[in-house]
Batch of 4 targets.
Target 1
Amino acid sequence: MKRILIVIMAVFSSGLVFAQSGIKLQELECEMLENPLGIDVVQPRLGWKIKTEKSRVMQEAYHIMVASSLEKLNNNNADLWDTGKVTSDQSINIKYKGKELDSKDKAFWKVKVWTNKGETEWSETAYWTMGILTYAEWKSTRWIGYNQLFPGESVSQFSRLSARYVRKNIDLEKPVKEAKIYLLGMGLYELYINGNQIGDQVLAPVPTDYTKNVKYNVFDVTEELSEGKNVIGTILGNGRYFAMRQEYKPYKIKSFGFPKMALQLVVKYEDGTSETIKTDESWKFTANGPIRANNEYDGETYDARMEISGWNRVGFDDSDWMNLMWVQEPGGFYEGQMTPNMKVKDTVMPVTIATKDDGYILDMGQNMVGWLQIKVNGKRGDTIKMKFAESLKEDGSLYTANLRDARVTDRYILNGSGTEVWEPKFVYHGFRFVKITGLQYEPKVEDFIGKVVYDDMETVGSFESSNETMNQIFENAFWGIRGNYKGMPIDCPQRNERQPWLGDRTTGAYGESFLFDNQTLYSKWLDDIKYSQTLDGGIPDVAPAFWRYYGDGVTWQGAYITVADMLYRQYGDVSGIRKHYPYMKKWVKYMEDNYLKDNLMTKDKYGDWCVPPESLEIIRAQDPELLTDGEVLASAFYYYLLNLMEKFAGLIDAEQQDIAYYQDLSARVKKAFNEKYLDKSKLVYANNTVTANVLPLAFGMVPKEYEQQVFENMTHEIEVNKDGHISTGVVGTQFLMRTLTDFGRPDLAFKLASNRTYPSWGYMVENGATTIWELWNGNTADPEMNSQNHVMLLGDLMIWYFEDMAGIKSDPKHPGFKKILMQPHFDTGLNYVNAAYDSSYGEIKSHWRKKGKNLNWEVMLPPNTSAKIYLPVSKASEVKVNGQPVDDLAEEISVEDGQLVFELLSGDYTIKTN
């Protein structure tokens, strides 16, 4: 008999934690946090995945038990929450409604479900632990630091500050039952207990505007502590806290001060007593450790001669170390970190090493983000210098002009002890090439390993097709997206910028969600945006607002709304909308009050950024015929956002007057927009750029009687005037591929996706790109402007790959992939597509292959879901499903616009048409 398994997960305020269980499962899978500790949400949302080989499985009811101890749960004593049997097919986002949980409480839970194919056993047990829920519980924990410079340190355009090595001897007088550390380490930290590093996170914690909120991490250190003498050690790096370039442009760059920390070690003893050890003035530190400088833009300097043997172990003599001082707290509210820290997620082995001038050029073969681990030999005091770059000059030397004033150089000073292995702790680089100097011998490629660093999230999507250009673009997107996840979505990882620009992710976040499980990252980012909002409602261009840019645009700031919509659409998560709705509404009103004139939005800052220019040698287009008026962009986008806000108001049962407000305002904007910008004689918008036409088409602003002709005129502009190439910038490209496809030209979208001539994504591939460029002409325009690892020009391409080519799309009426719309466009020019996406319900697969008029399509649907299938035939007799007539397995068969449409419940299917 086939068994039905359950994989359970806890969904907290800002995203998923697969707390994991299952009848036969042996190990944790899809873990979203390092551990389910430190949850500061009193009503977490719970969910589970049903795993079974059975087909057509739909949940009919569930029963959740939550208990305060494992023993109680095993005895079915659900003293915290017992739902009883609940008739429902809901298996994600179920809000905990049990007894109110206090700080540091632990909750154990399990679930069983009833399906149309039978009842499951109880799942294995999962748990979560509450964090510190009130400021009062932190109040007596002192922040410690040292707000002075040491010799060799500086605050300047190129600030230098050594890492702070911190230690505390503690004496535990009884056997330890349980111990947890709650740590606030600003800007970055590494944590040790008795010489052992705690956790495998890097560059932790995630960055925030520390004057608004600071994140704490929680670690279970029970196994590391024992009765008697112990040592807690930390290394504090600079990160975004001790801000780079802080004295260079103080009006622009936000600074927070010197590194500092606050820590609580909560120990529960076997005899039932407990003790809390906190940071205070008795903690000791030194700045005379081996990390002499660490700066995200400029690199890390490590002097192995200054290593401090045993500094984080019992018995070390710290009598000549200084006492840390009580210092002012950062100012922001303390929050449990609900998104995972960064980790080393992959490694890259170099492909070549070549002699160049006074050193060697290492080629990683891939533009990557992270750092280089080295294995070297030399005399004591030899300095190995590593300078990083994305590309080379024609003479084979590093090209670094596009890095601006970022020095991107790591230095390692040998101690002369033999073979020495080193990698940095508190920096990262965006690079493909490394120049290595200072070696007294010829190195081998095996002496170096590239460490790929990004947020610890699962890869959830894969895509392959019969077109190699599209496949390589997908690979480039994959490397670019993950490289720019740094506790927040940044624009680029290599130059002196690395900022979380809102405009880069307005639609980008949606496409990225098909490749990576980015729910918690973008939930956290919504908080960053909220914290950056001004009192009167303004939203910055970058959030957290490390740069003071408040441009009051629409196309950039609109990411606040579109990202919340993505979380709802892709994950069924309405909590972000509910939480942020008042602040979004405040921004909508702010823009109306300040910039809406004659019902049109007059304020735009960046235009359709990075339109392909008229000349390959210039960075930005100057020809007015290529540029879209800012009022067109802002007004159309504002209309789009008003419609989303109307949807949000309905989802959260906002007051009816809110819905009326959005409806009235959007109607007025639409009317004014068409009156001013629709040329009824030519049936084009404004100056007939593709962007000027695609936005009103995508947003439903075009009067129905003119819609088809406007679309045809737009496609004429693409096919004839632009010779079948892209001509949109950041804004227009966000809606281009889907609009072409929705209006019946998926073939033209395919041409744009598969081009290898300028301007196109394939042109980047043709010219050796392994990530996505910032400029369409990044190899010919002033290369000092071009980041070779940006994602903003992807637009809606990744969405189009999965939704329109693979046919994996969440039904907007049933978000989170509860119901799936599978409507691949088989007539674009592709012969096959093989794609998969691991949704909140489980993995969805779509693998189709076309030969002549025959189609073979393999589909996999996870339990408790269904899919609406679209086929390019009009008769059911032309279709077989698993070798049977379609009528035997399908539901609700109909014909829509010449396509056969039917519903399939969960399972594996092979669909064939003749």
Note: The chain has a mean pLDDT of 94.
Target 2
Amino acid sequence: MTATTTVFATDRAAPVTLSTSGTTTADVIAVARHDARVELAPEARERVSRVRAHIDALAASDTPVYGISTGFGALANTPIPPQKRTRLQKSLIRSHAAGAGPAVEREVVRALMFLRAKTLASGRTGIRPQTLQTLLDVLNAGITPVVHEFGSLGCSGDLAPLAHCALVLMGEGRATGPEGVERPVPELLAEAGIAPVTLTEKEGLALINGTDGMLGQLILALADLRELFTVADITAALSVEGLLGTDRVFVPELHEPLRPHPGQVDAAANMLAVLADSPIVASHRHGDDRVQDAYSLRCAPQVAGAARDTAAHATQVADRELAAAIDNPVVLDDGTISSNGNFHGAPVAYVLDFLAIPVADLASMAERRTDRMLDPARSHGLPPFLAEDPGTDSGLMIAQYTQAGLVSELKRLAVPASVDSIPSSAMQEDHVSMGWHAARKLRQGVGNLRRVLAVELLTATRAIALRSPLQPGPAGAAVLADVTARIGTPGPDRFLAPDIADLDDYLASGQLVRTVEAVVGPLH
């Protein structure tokens, strides 16, 4: 599966400090997308050292402890003598780095490495301070392990993806340097002044037993979707202008007092702001014989609002997971080493699947507005397919085909991954979350939604331009100026794919929202 992401600036952000109290979604974004440097707080280093001393004492005892002096998974009851424990850790990482398929995106790998470091810094895993520091050094050097598309079942955490990262700490595996070019791992480490680690008791499990991959992708997707939900309000409002729709259904008295879903209230307010002072809208406010606009126009805040509220629930889950310290076994406050099931990815997997539904539905509604603008029977005076010379020119006919194909794919991606479970590890791990797969398909869905909205933007701005001499409102005029500067004015048929790609980049950059907010003020 090929995943996509929003384009962000690459300037380094302010340093992020890892403490025993955890981290924030803003920190994850800063490290994953903006190469923020990560530092370890002194109190976190002290706690990690103190807990490690306890692990060393257990390793020297005769009592078998899972992850310290036993095998793993279905081999948990197999004792491992001290002279084989270094080999045990190497074998664990090497055998678990069994991914396949294309490499996942750099920002995903950086997010999962940072989130694993966050848990290690909690002092709950028993890792040595020098091993944690090596992980941070690799992250700060811009070295990115090659992590593959397939390998994680989301339980016991994202084992294979994290194992590929841990392998690089050992001086093995595959990685790219800061410039994005793959080079031998020993060469990359030496160039950065990083000595490979020799893992000791408990460290192998500590490095790979977490939900960091799926959580990182959830956090990245939520950041993109917050922007895209506002984009969807803007493109919907522009479609209302293009289709000579009314703005009266977006007034606040129809929303918060009557149906107080927070997302709906915000979406309606955004659309009303974008349509403010629109001569196109005012031109048919009186004497129009249409009683109501179609659902894809009139109900846009209800759909976009429900998507926002779904994201709000997912954000709450992400925040809880950020506060977690996931490992197995885990070190409790009294020093007890306890096996547990916190690595199961169900809480994250469910919301990753949940978000895929409104992503698909929001795109589906946008496509219906596009189709309406291209159909002369429903567009209220626009030429067929917004073509300059209908018949000779096809206009935006096939752009809508592309949009429809993307929507169809989004519907397929909305089928949940978390309802599936394929037992593994000789039935020891007999129920798994498939949260990694839910994350991968959501990332693809986010990119597809943005492309659908880019086609709606292309269509709506062309429809508005064709309404001349009627003019859009100030917000619509500003957007139309942006779009015209990028792809030119409507005219005879031309190569459309570059226009769609250009507007996709425009949305991904955040410029559409900035342009509108410069006119109407902050949007929700």
Note: Strands lie at 16-18, 38-40, 100-103, 144-145, 148-150, 175-176, 182-183, 330-331, 337-338.
Target 3
Amino acid sequence: MPYKDLQEAWEADRLIGLRERLKKMSEDARNGGQVYRILMPDSEKPHNRLSNWGSWLGQYGRFLAGDPPGAAEDADRIRQYVIEHYIEPAREEGNAEVDVLVRDVNGALGLKEAWPNICQALGGRIFQDLSQLPIPERIGADQSSATVFRFDIRDQPDSRNGRPFVLFDAEGSPYQPVKNHNRTSGISAFYIKPKGAKNTADDAIKTEDIQEVARAVLLEGLAARIKAISGGTVNYLTYGGNKLVRYELDPEIAKAIGVPSRGGANVGSTEANIDNMMPKTKMDPHTMNLILYGPPGTGKTFTTAAEAVRLCGETVPDDRAELMLSYQDLLAAGRIEFVTFHQSMAYEEFVEGRQPMTGSEDDDEAASSGFRLETVPGIFRRIAKRANTSKGHSVGSNAISIAGRQVFKMSIGEAKNPEDAHLFEEAIEGGYALLGFDDIDWSDEKYSDRAAIIEAYKAENDENANADARSGPVQMPFIFRNWVNQGDIVIVSKGNGMFRAIGEFVGDYEFHPRPDGGYAHRRAVRWLWVDREGVAVNEIYTRRFSMKSIYAMYDSELNVPALERYMNSGSTDGPADPEPFVLIIDEINRANISKVFGELITLLEPDKRLGQTNALTVRLPYSGDEFGVPSNLHILGTMNTADRSIALLDTALRRRFTFREMMPDPSVLDGSIEKCGIDLPRLLTTINERIEYLYDREHQIGHAYFTGCNSLADVDQVMRHKVIPLLAEYFFEDWDKIAAVLGDLKPHESAILGNFLNRSVLKAPPGLEDGDALPRFRWELRSESEGFDYTMLIGE
């Protein structure tokens, strides 16, 4: 190239020529050319490295352009780019349709092999709303760089009266995004359908009329009004990173209130100031950091279950058993995680740490002696990973179940070998699975018999004479050809400890020889989920993967809910809001917060989450990965105020969490007289009033201690084995105060026969003079045969 360095190449053509040169070099290499050797003289498989260099140049170009990381979501950039560079130019030229090649959009935006993201952005409902176009026709392989979206851009009739929409900005002017490195100026845009509007802004009503209607919409707070009007609906959409409201009213109602029957406005536009309607940040108002605090036994841990189910978007059943069943389902699917903090909890357990591992990653017997240190993600990082990679969820008829399907593990190239990286990318891009071994065409029906495969393999080479059914080159093709059925599930491994793709087999065995040889065996696959970084296999399977290229996984050891969640988390139909996830931290004040969270404590704040205006990331100390907390991860904690180690917690977390107090609720025990013969609400109230008088309100007794009591004997057992020992802990074995709470303390210094406690007077040891002998007492619980008398507690 004629440039002395990358800076000069950037100033000349924004690195376009350099990237085109690499692209042509890659194409030449695929056709058997040797031009690439000026860069890699010894490489025999340069494709993956050339592809990576092109991606790196794209990233470097965005850096030189001054684009800040996270300034706009990829989906928004993709939609905006296609509207500005494909849809609108085609409309201006009067074309009937326009084709959008995914590979071209990926290259233009400098994305890194974002085929699924581009397909999702262009095929979803949001893009249809923004472009006012019907669902596009998809041509070619699904979710690959070769996918073509064909848009019909002829005038599309409105569902009510045949008129389309136009865009206007917050000032009421026709909306024209300012082009700045493929990003908008940040100005909000709204949909409105002025009377008589055609397909372009030129055919719309006068600008001043649009301004008048726009200001009326904004100043009157239409979005809030619609919710109170029968027949109106409000839908939310995103454009250029800005949250908008799309409204739709019955024409008669719209006429009555003097607004268009369809249109849009800022979310919550209720202030009489247009400047205030502009979105200041892109915060997710639903991100929850919540700590439930209160005395022991007030139902904090149980409440977190109901709150977690609600935050996951599920209906919270009134029945406790149904609630816990829903909770357990979400727990099994990995959308809820539960952890209890303790004094020994550390950063290495919670976020990530290094642990000794025996054997080798590839199960190589020769390298299996001794142990190695391996970076292992903790519970927080694991659930954050799930939340960050969620792309939505298929529901209803689109949801995929593994019921009646086989699940296969499969390797596509060596994950740690850079020379094989292109095989996985080719498989994902092309929509198929690849198997290696000898280039023998197994398509003939006779190869449904294993013996025929053995015979053909032996005939291929004299070195194969000892092959049998256990030989890999026989066993693997036989499984791939004969065991796999259409509809079965394939999980692509990344080493023995991770998986990086899940798909559904949708085709039969095919033989496609390659110019370089190898990996000629193929089956069509509909890829359901892809994560090139990989996820730990223990998320979905109790075992590590073995070295076999393909084999059926044990159904009994699959985590079916978690696997199905991954399978359904890459839906491209309609809006693709990520699923919510919840981490529950029980007894959060039991651990050293700064020790456990480390530098992540700042990342918990809602506005510091990934995708938010003030998003922050940190480089983790063990793995070296950049890490941020996703906005769809909610954190619930419980805190026992009777614990004496809460001062540090208040300092560390008070600003980052919402605190909700949970105090004893005696009304929960209503109806106890019929069951137990005792007024438990009055008993609990009396005990807690006395505790608060003698100690404080944070050391009360929770109602949960008595919720399981169905008889007087049950109440006695709770008092004897739970409540009185807890009082002894509270008052540091000061039995006078314990007796005062129970109503057994008397002002005299004689023996006491109480309702719960008996007091006897201890004799002074011999030799002590009477004047030196202070009265001493022994307190004892009444025996079980004596039972307890609750008169002094319930006032009867």
Note: Residues 6-64 form one domain.
Target 4
Amino acid sequence: MRRILPALAAGSVLPLVLGGTAASAADDSGDVTVTNTETVQAKLDATGSLREARVYEQLALTGHGTATIANPVSTSGLRNLDGFGSYTVEDGRMIAQLDVDGERRVRTVSDFDGELPLGVQVTYTLDGEPVQPGDVVGRSGVLEVHYTVTNLTSREDQVTYDDGRGGTGTATATTVVPMIGQLVTTLPSSFTDVTSGQAGIAGDGRGGTRLTFQMTLFPPIGSPTAEFGYTARISDGVVPAASLTSMPVSPLDYPSFAGGSRSYASGAASGVDLTAGAIQIDDNLRRLHDGSAELLAGLVQMHDGATTLAAGLNDEAAPGAAELAAGLNARALPGARDLAAGLNDKILPGAEQLADGLSGDAVAGARRLTDGLTDQLAPGAQDLADGLNDQLAPGAKDLATGLSTRIAPGATSLASGAARLAAGLESAQTSAPALVAGLEQVDAGLARIDAGLAQLYGRIDQLPTQAQPLRDGIASLRAGIGSKAAPGAGQQPSLLYAVDALRTQLGQAGTDAQTTAGQVGQLRAGVTDPTAGLAAYTALLPAGAQAGFTQALGSIDGNLAALATGLGESATRLGTASATLARVECGLSAAALPGVCDPARPGLLEGLAGVDQGVGSLVTQVVGSVQGGVGDGDDTASDGTLRGGMNAAQAGVDQLQAGGEQLVTGIGQLGTGADDLSAGADALADGIGSAAAGSKRLSTGLGSAASGSTRLADGLGTAAAGSGTLFQGLVRASAGSRDLAAGIGTAADGSSQLASGLDDAATGSSELAVGLSAAADGSSQLADGLGTAADSTPQIVDGTKRLSDEGTSQLVASGEKTAASYGTGYAVLEAGAQRAATEGMAYGAPEGAAGATAYSIEIAGVDGGSASTLGKGLAALALFAAVGVVTTLLRRRPA
């Protein structure tokens, strides 16, 4: 009996290995499916030290035919539990040829000679003082029991993951053979005020308290070490025994952890997508930063050029043009007009009268004198004497005085002024082309500035295109989050769809767990029902065995109650997990779950939409502001744009050029007129000088004639000759006076042309001053506008750099951290699944067969007595019945 009971008790952990899938073993004939389960039963003392351990092997065969089995086992103390026959052992394998017709089981037990994958340590304190387990017996006080269960398969491995940059990252991580377990202990009714921060607490139906501790002994879902315990107030104390059941699992396939594993895989993929998108965004931001820096450098150069232009126009060109206009209007033009008026209104009429007098009266008088001397000498001698003394002599003297003292000096001054005017106009005509050429250079410079502005206008228009990859990256990130809509054929599910599906599945799993708890309740009724359950067989047992059987049924009922409680707690945790995933959905999108998510707290999807809108608005504002400030080619100064100011400046320069050309032409005309004026003035001065000399000679002659009129009779021959000479001199004087009148007329015409040319020059110089003033204002506006643009552009440069440094770079780091964290976690889970597949069994299964190993660890209690052998036997009988049911289910699972 002692050898059989442990094997039967081991059946209590078999429900933990039902996840194994049977496979066909190598057979000699027919079709036989083999499933191998190993159960390691270990007994520990009350502190967790190992006393002994056995391994129970069970082979479940189904099908029809003959199969040869080679099952790896512990050969130490190997015994057949199904009979008295023995098995052949070769190289650590049990060899058996078995005939199967339907179902067949083969069971063995042997000493466990390996290392337990779990370490257990139990410590006790009574009233705050550490004690040994035996010291608790019979005492009262506050007892605290602390369990430490450690997965001893830990080791450091190198794992790899996708780093989000197109490569892989490597990390050193702790991997284990993933183990899950449950520790159950029942405290007697003498334990009161029981508390525990880790256990599920329920009654055992007999006044005691049942504590159940769940363990997930593998990272990253759990930890290789689990610590838990309880505190109770005791009287007449004992140390209750505890049962720990555990098994290796694959976290990628085991239903309770497959969802969590997929979450790590999804998190790693999200981190990779986030990193890749953030890197693309950061690269685009850096290109935008470089373009903004180039734009800033161009604006600074344009601002410097515009400032120099404005300084030249304001400080030199505009004041010089104003002074030129002032000089022409205030001095040259009035002088030219006075000169023209004097020549036309005074000198020219006098010269014409002189010419008329000489040609008409003097010549005619000389002719008549000659005739009179010849024909009327006697009668006219007295009249001649009177005329000479009373009229001709004084008039000739006055004429000589006027010509010598007034007309001759004035003609000389006129000739000098005309010469100076011609020299000044010649100098102005020499300097004027330089002004026009300078204006052409200004116009060429303004054309280059306008071309630069047009280029700036075109290049800033490319900013939306350059920013598009940034917006595409955001759109890709938003598409990765997606919506709850199911993916189409060939499409990858979105993150939001996966989270929503996981939340729904967890909710359904909670509902299923709750339903299963109800079914366990029905199973409890099948055990304890006094008419239809196992309790109905109590009366069939011997009277001495009925109490033990009833106790065993109570233990089974307690186990089922604990299972129902655990299922209920699982349902609660699954509901909590579902609610947590609902918050995750809300974090992804505030519109994911209407009525659940707070619309006032936008999720990641809405935040990305806001970033996309902000980038679009930033690009639109930058393009609109710069293009609005630069303007089009047809803008005017009233539009307040740079190109409008440039157009106004160019128009002013065009006016300056036109005025400058007119100025050059007018100055040329003035120079020609001034040369004519100078020549006429010189001729006038010479003629007047000759006239003055002649008038003096005339005055002297007339004086002599007057004084000699008495001697007229004596000198009639001489007088006749003198009259002939006089006649000829008057003819010449008449011709000179005509030349004098013509020269003065020419001078008058030249002075009029001079006045007209100076008037045009004054008008042109005024227009030049106005144009240069407008150009100066435009250049100042241009400099100010470029200065504003240059001052504003660093905000773009700084903004893009800050957005890269403080935003996208952090986003890249966050994505890399997420990819590394979740990628490492999933890699650890994959490594654990691999280790579970290769190291999960204590000894291994036959080739081609499915296998699994479970561990049943009994931690001894201390109560000062021993348990009833009959009670243990009855408990084993009940567990044997449960083992039979489980084994049947395992064999009937489809291959």
Note: The radius of gyration is 64 Å.
